[in-house]
Amino acid sequence: MKRFLVLSLAAAMLFAASAALAQTKVISITQIVEHPALDNARKGFMDGLKEAGVDAKFNVHIAQGNSATNVQIAGQMLDEKPNLVLAIATPGAQVCAQKIKDIPVLFTAVSDPVGAGLVKTMQAPGGNLTGMTDMPPVDKQIELIKTILPKTATIGIVYNAGEANSVSQVNAVKAAAAPLNVKIVEATVANSGGVYQAAKSLVGKCDAVYIPLDNTVVSAFESLVKVCDENKLPLFSSDNESVGKGAIAALAVDYYAMGKQTAAMGKKILDGAKPADLPVESLKNLDIHLNLKAAKAQGVTIPEAVVAKAVKKFE
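The structure assignment produced for this chain is given below.
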């Protein structure tokens, strides 16, 4: 009888341990590059799931902007047998769409999910991927630049033409700028090492520089700031985090808040919802961030009406 009780107790403990292990969700995360905006999206996602009561083990992979590493990460994540994959930014999401077919994939910080081939439509994704878009309201961003610099006639853009999200945003900028009689001058790069020279090529050709949500360019943002400060060339960004690094202003989404909203979608999937049935979401609340120190360095006086509307100011 004693031996039976011991065996029963051991079996019960093993069952309890197995049950606890089964409740812990494995979530694999791929991120193309380290950058404050993408880092905040990841942190918001992890915090959001924790607040929702999800017991999860996170395996975080960062490709450091390397395309080959980006592809390798997809294979590593498959080996981890996750319950859910989170792809932060377009390059990682595109590789996941190609390589991962039988695991739910959630993406965030993707500008154009349809154009990137991730979903069929925003309302009906149709496959094993869904998530959140961070496509900024480029018309309002151009209007902000014109409000701060009313005489702006030409805007320069530095971007990687190999990033589908950047191409989509640049096309949107052109469409938004045309009715305002603003001309767009492009300077493309293939990697972060070309950002400095691309920025220098715009000196004397434009009244301001605008940076889209480009993973290659934001990873070398300091190079842009250096050129713009030295040449009194006003620099504007699509993400608020770059304002703290030297851009004058941005009207953009809060990436930490986006991460938390993405976590709410992740909780639905972990509870049994199918990505195909979850429409792609966007964050509606937009904030103005200003860098008054950068404005001074780049020879710009920001109107008081804009300063008054700013949610955050760097001085």
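Interim note for the steering committee: Residues 1-7, 16-21 have pLDDT under 50 and may be disordered. Residues 27 and 258 are 18 Å apart (CA to CA).
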